[in-house]
Amino acid sequence: MGKMKKTIELALLSTVLASCGGLSTSSASGSGSGSTAPGDLSTLYVSNFNGGFGDSWLKKAISRFEKDNQNVSFESGKKGVHIEIQDNKTDAITLESTLKDSLSDVFFAEGLYYYDYIAQNLLLDVSDIVEEKLTGYGETRSIADKMTSEQRSFYQTTDGKYYGIPHYSGFSGLIYDVDLFDEDNLYFADGSSSFITSSSDKKSAGPDGISGTLDDGLPSTYDQFFQLCSHMAGDLGITPLIWNGQYSNTYLENLIYALMGDYEGLGNMMMNYTFSGISKNIINPVNSDGEYTFADSARGVQIQPNNAYELYANAGRYEALNFLKKLVSKSDYYYNLSFSPSFLHTEAQLAYLESRPKGQPIAMLSDGCWWEEEADANIQQIADFYGEQYSRMNRHFGWMPLPKANQGKVGQKPTLVDTLNSLGFIKANATPSKIPLAKKFLQYVSTDESLREFTTTTNTLKALDYKLTNEDLAKLSPFGATIYEAKCSSDMVYPYSNVPMYIDNVSYFNMYESFASSVGGTLQKRPIQYFRANQANSAADYFNGMRTYRESVWSNTFSEYFVNA
């Protein structure tokens, strides 16, 4: 780890902001039970990043854990448990510097880089609770069994140990107002490029290409998406999209990455972190008219560390950039404050929620899967004012399956990209007498019961494999049900690997750095900012500069990793 390069602060900040919109310092926030611990109970302090996912899930888990262990002794002379929660909405670099002195022993955090913490001996080895079969909880699997193969290869270090557990799953995309779509017939008709005129009309098959599924009538392709936006804005007076103006670059780059991931698919996306495989999506420079050809469509391009810069010329990257270029180039497509630096993420959510009852509807929101949990208080206030039909359980929002770049991609399995780097762990210098209790609690929140409870509480997902029961499904909000459906029907990309070239240079490969380009001899790192400042320029100008830029620095930066290529 001698050459470990710490994740740059900007990237970590961007990741944190993606799910919380801001930073605060650590502070105690009370206990799971709401009472002061008597001296004969073992006390455990748990740090929680109380952002978009909140802490209701944690309070419920603590309440059950305290009850389940009320007669268990974890320390000599004590029986039973009392757990205190500490809010800790700090960025990963601040957390890293304060971790050892924290009162907490267990942490649930996001936006941190796992191997950076390991290199500094900040994380406790928890291999025993990760690999142990959860038979004591009536299960046959271990926590490791609930991870994808990509997760296991990342979290299990070269010495065969685990130092943390995947926490929540955070992916970005588009949310749509299902009630509004239903009321205004905003669905494509079957076998036609026009829209339905009544609810009884048969809808198109949608991006999955299968009739009778949840995405019927939704735009199948990018062209249909912009046709829908034009129909909304031009014919109906509906604002198509809204997003957070304060961090518009970050939120829209999250959307770019989501579109890119959905085009590329799991296998092609993972090459960006493993630098190994055969890519058939690499394209030649894009022409001025936006046309391109594939570099080697028959055999594909063999990717290895010395030529992995070729991946910056993948078609998915260009198509995603072109989508965003079109979106931001027409002001009718988005809310007028969506690029205002003072327009906060909570204000964007509130404007979206209020738009239909106020009679100035906004159809879609660009945000993360956590948005509804984050906006819960606003949803309740709107329901109180406008009526119960606007409550969380009665109002219908949906996670929109992303449209495909072209008709040839329709029917391709969806792919989601989890970008939050969230982690549950125990600090390495935890109080020795507290470690058995800390380990048991960290394992407890990854039991199937706790995972299901997390989802029914937050209407979001943990980054592990588990299934909801019919009883669980009945507890979900309409939006939460579509989030669960999206996870079940999609491949999930966790954008990391255990390859030394990636581990040692993570800041170079993070999402926000991956769209850097040299355009006209000038380095550009924020494509949205570039498109808005250079509206006459095309996405092709920006895209063609990406591969040129990467190739120019690749050998000088990574040649030491080419020896065994």
Question: What is the secondary structure topology, with strand pairs?
Answer:
Elements: H1 9-20, E1 27-31, E2 42-48, H2 56-68, E3 81-87, H3 92-98, E4 106-109, H4 114-119, H5 127-131, H6 149-155, E5 165-166, E6 168-169, E7 172-177, H7 178-183, H8 222-236, E8 239-242, H9 248-274, E9 277-279, E10 301-303, H10 315-328, H11 345-355, E11 362-368, H12 371-374, H13 376-386, E12 397-400, E13 415-417, E14 423-426, H14 435-444, H15 448-458, E15 461-462, H16 470-475, H17 478-489, E16 491-493, H18 500-503, H19 506-509, E17 517-519, E18 522-524, H20 527-533, H21 539-558
Parallel strand pairs: 2-3, 2-4, 8-11, 13-16
Antiparallel strand pairs: 1-3, 4-14, 5-14, 6-15, 7-11, 7-12, 9-10, 17-18
